[in-house]
Amino acid sequence: MDPFEELERMAINATSDSQLDEDGPCADDITRWQRLFSYAYSEAKEKIEKHRSDLTRERVSEDLWALLRPQFEGYDREAYEHKLTLMSPPSFSRAHSDQKSPQNSVSETDASFLFRMQGPLEQANVIREALGSDSAPEFKHGWGEDGEARFCRVDSAGKAAVDQWLSQQRSSHRSTFVRESLARKDLSGISIHPFLGIDATLPQHRQTILKSRPEPQQNQYPVWYFFYGTLADSSILAHQLQLSEQDVPMLSPASVDHGMLKSWAGKYKALIDGQSNSRVQGWAYEVQTAEHEEVLRFYETARYEVVRCSIGLPDRKDAVTSLTFRFIDPSQLS
């Protein structure tokens, strides 16, 4: 890293943090961290103080926070920065980017990142050139203290391509990439992969693939989802999707085959692959739009992935091919 860039970030962090309460975190901040991260009072206070004392940490800009804020109701920017440090792997904080946690399981190759379109990477055609792709990358718009800001979403390969392009251009500009804590969704268009509890490479499933188009497709909406944890609470679901009081989400009793539930961190339910005769009871909800689905993917975080599954509904004779959130690393569960 450029030492001047490091010093500049430290100066920004120090200046910003000097404006905070000199007597320590305020009660509202501590309560927020208790609610969001299930910390005890003293633990929340200690975590906030440690976060603020780390002058080398990467900050989320006002413009980027303005873009992300609607998806993280109840957070402030500081709490969101802490949320990113809890992700696996801990790639947000550059100060700790070389440390490997024994619990890390979310592959860096599966990550997605946002960077601001500015400097030599301000124009879409230049970004396409840097990515080496003829297709337009995904753009996001937001508003910050400096007005409108544009961001580009890339995967890990795109992140590497951008860094390489900047190096080849001998540019002094360095893009700051913020890793998104977003449940991965990569449904095959030619096979049932990924599918809860079923190996799509087995011959009997390959035969099914050849006979019909696998559903749901990657961008098919509306689409049924099977919920088994906090999202099975209609009030939580409505809150996350920002539905009006008149638009109460209609959850249907449902069961999913080939799965089993375990516990993560001693308090969260986590669905993983089960035996061929295993079944989990829960609720089904028909997600209407890609925007609503993205909100739910952020809610579940990068510890989960979207997979196809087979669910039973009380008013349907045949099983319905649906989607659900599967925990990525069963070794972390109890």
Topology at a glance:
Blueprint: H1 3-17, H2 27-37, H3 41-53, H4 62-68, H5 77-85, E1 112-116, H6 124-131, E2 138-144, E3 147-155, H7 156-168, E4 178-179, E5 184-185, H8 203-211, E6 223-227, H9 234-241, E7 252-257, E8 259-264, E9 268-273, E10 279-287, H10 290-300, E11 304-312, E12 320-327
Parallel strand pairs: 5-11, 6-12
Antiparallel strand pairs: 1-3, 1-4, 2-3, 6-10, 7-10, 7-11, 8-9, 11-12
Helix pairs in contact: 2-3
Biggest beta-sheet profile? 5 strands, mixed, barrel
Question: Roughly how many Å is the radius of gyration?
Answer: 22 Å
Strand content: 15-25%
Write down the secondary-structure element order. HHHHHEHEEHEEHEHEEEEHEE
Number of helices: 10
- Low-pLDDT parts are 1-15, 88-105
Structural class category:
alpha+beta
* Widest β-sheet, arrangement of strands: 6-10-7-11-12
Total strand count, please?
A: 12
Describe this structure in words.
The protein has about 325 residues and is an alpha+beta fold. The chain is built from 10 helices and 12 strands. The protein has helices spanning about 5-15, 25-35, 40-55, 60-70, 75-85, 125-130, 155-170, 205-210, 235-240, 290-300, and strands at about 110-115, 140-145, 145-155, 180, 185, 225, 250-255, 260-265, 270-275, 280-285, 305-310, 320-325. A hairpin with a 7-residue loop joins strand 11 (about 305-310) and strand 12 (about 320-325). Helix 2 crosses helix 3 (about 40-55).
